[in-house]
Amino acid sequence: MSKFSIENHPHKRLNPLTGDWILVSPHRAKRPWQGQVEKAVSDERPKYDPACYLCPGNERAGGKYNPQYQGTFVFTNDFSALLTDSPEGKENEDPLFQATSETGICKVICFSDDHSLTIPEMEVEDIRKVVDVWCEQFSELASNPRINYVQIFENKGAIMGCSNPHPHGQIWSSSSVPTEPEKESKTQKEYFEIHGTTLLGDYLKAELINKDRILIENKHFVALVPYWAVWPFETMVISKRPVQNIAMLTISERDSLADIYRKLTIKYDNLFEVSFAYSAGFHQAPTDGKDYPEWHLHMHFYPPLLRSSSVKKFMVGYEMLASPQRDITAEQAAQRLRDLPDVHYKKQTNK
Description:
Blueprint: E1 11-15, E2 20-24, E3 73-76, E4 90-94, E5 97-100, E6 104-110, H1 124-142, E7 149-156, E8 168-174, H2 179-195, H3 199-210, E9 214-217, E10 221-224, E11 235-239, H4 251-272, E12 278-283, E13 298-302, E14 305-308, E15 311-312, H5 318-321, E16 325-326, H6 330-338
Parallel strand pairs: 2-16
Antiparallel strand pairs: 1-2, 3-6, 4-5, 6-8, 7-8, 7-12, 9-10, 10-11, 11-13, 12-13, 14-15
Helix pairs in contact: 1-4
């Protein structure tokens, strides 16, 4: 019998942040591809769209108008998933039928007044302004005694549920800690109590030695393909210093975050020469006033594209019923992303 090889043989990998396992089947990546591979239609948009409800001066739902803003703009979501005035209550008479009320505040952040842009096409100094808004909004929401978690995220692309192409993201803050951050709270605390260091701090040190999955490194942050990645080109951005939340970042660290956010998304766009869709967001410590030394700020990127701009990865069959599974290994995905140019494909001189 041949010796086991992680590059060639089916195996499972553990995600220490969630405790979940993923099936990796690298031999399947060698099978012939008979699906269509093509470039997407160009996604050129005007700087201002009179029909866009996020552009400066335009009308939003319910007759509200955006100001003639320049740069960033923040407002409370007109269709918030969480409301501040939901009455308290629960249903728990039967252990099989339980529900409890949930309150919160949902914000929309326009990254730019320019409708035509996306993060990888923005200047780093303008992305830096977005980072500042994230920090300001986090601090404001975290100070609310009814808010115990602040989720900052961005959905990019219609296939990721983005209802408007104007460059924007969202913040949903809630009275309870959501499922995924709650999982990460548990695992990070268990690790910290045993080792006295953060799980992601030790993980990052090991990855920087190994380098197989490292994509970009700057002074304060690292972008990599996690060892346990589920999505074909899933990545993480991890702070080198184990801060608990985004508001704890120094001026220099904010600069580095803006820089790596832009560089990573440029590589995404260059992969298939398309405005690359993803859902991305920060995981950080709860805001309930307790101390969380085990928490280590990081950002997840979950992109669905697999083989081209039109071929997507869906969770189906075995993955929905049994376990997540991937064919291309994390190392192979990292190599492909690492080899891409650092200049956006629209600005490359040979285009």
